[in-house]
Design a protein that fits this description.
By secondary structure, the chain is mainly α. The protein contains 13 helices and no strands.
């Protein structure tokens, strides 16, 4: 719905309610009419808001294909609204990222108009670029550049598990351990950034509980610390629904290199 249609819908709902009450011959004071009218307006807004959240609920539940289809429908419906299209492309990228379809992530991000994105979406854009490239083990230098751009827009300490993995890939073991220590010792606050004026999803529980634990496990695996790797892979593998990170964490836990250290 565009903003004009929403306004017309609200006014129409108020008019219909007024007509019903008039036909019913219910006597009401002006203040009562005002309260009822605003009640209708708020209800209409909540209806629109709830419909928008349904798409995100599918994402939260791991129903990625369903979420992607919903985001595509929204994008098609609001094709002229660049901000909405950007938000939907970003959310679709998140779905593909959690499915492990990293080339699809790149394809979706390529379609975004970065100049018209708000800071939340820009953060997501750079973060997904960096994460996808490093997981594909392609162009580590570009991945780090995207990471640096992402942390300029948000607290860099929140993404230290990924930076630690970057450092191990580059062979900087001491730096990797420094980033892990800074992350683990820091009081972590789970964050969901949501704004009606800005974008939808940036950080959520999945990021901390699954994805970041997976990156910590991968970091310790490359540092030849199988017991610590297993500890974090165990955390990452505990998901209520199928996703790339939990699946890969489970696969690593079954490998001989970790099993022999039981």
């Amino acid at each position: 719905m565009n903003k004009y249609f929403k306004l017309i819908l609200m006014l129409l709902c108020g008019a219909i309610l007024g007509a019903i009450l008039r036909v019913s011959r219910i006597h009401m004071e002006l203040k009562d009419w005002i309260i009822i009218y605003f009640g209708v307006v708020i209800s209409a807004l909540l209806f629109v808001f709830t419909r928008g959240m349904n798409n995100l609920n599918s994402l939260y539940k791991g129903e990625y294909n369903k979420a992607i289809e919903s985001f595509k429908k929204t994008m098609k419906k609001h094709g002229r609204n660049t901000k909405i299209v950007n938000a939907m492309l970003y959310n679709i990228s998140v779905c593909h990222h959690r499915k492990g379809d990293f080339y699809e992530v790149e394809s979706c991000l390529d379609k975004m108009d970065l100049k018209s994105c708000d800071e939340n979406i820009k953060w997501g854009y750079f973060f997904l670029r960096a994460s996808s490239l490093i997981l594909l083990e392609e162009n580590v230098h570009a991945a780090i550049e995207y990471y640096e751009k992402a942390v300029e827009l948000f607290n860099p300490e929140e993404a230290y598990p990924i930076r630690a993995y970057f450092e191990t890939v580059k062979g900087n073991q001491k730096e990797a351990l420094r980033y892990i220590e800074a992350y683990v010792n820091k009081e972590k606050r789970r964050k969901v950034i949501f704004s009606l004026k800005k974008s939808t999803l940036v950080y959520d529980k999945f990021t901390y509980d699954i994805e970041y634990n997976y990156f910590l496990g991968m970091t310790y695996l490359k540092l030849n610390e199988p017991e610590l790797a297993k500890e974090y892979f165990s955390k990452a593998s505990k998901s209520q629904y199928e996703n790339y990170f939990s699946k890969k964490a489970g696969e690593y836990m079954e490998k001989d290199s970790l099993q022999n250290n039981n």
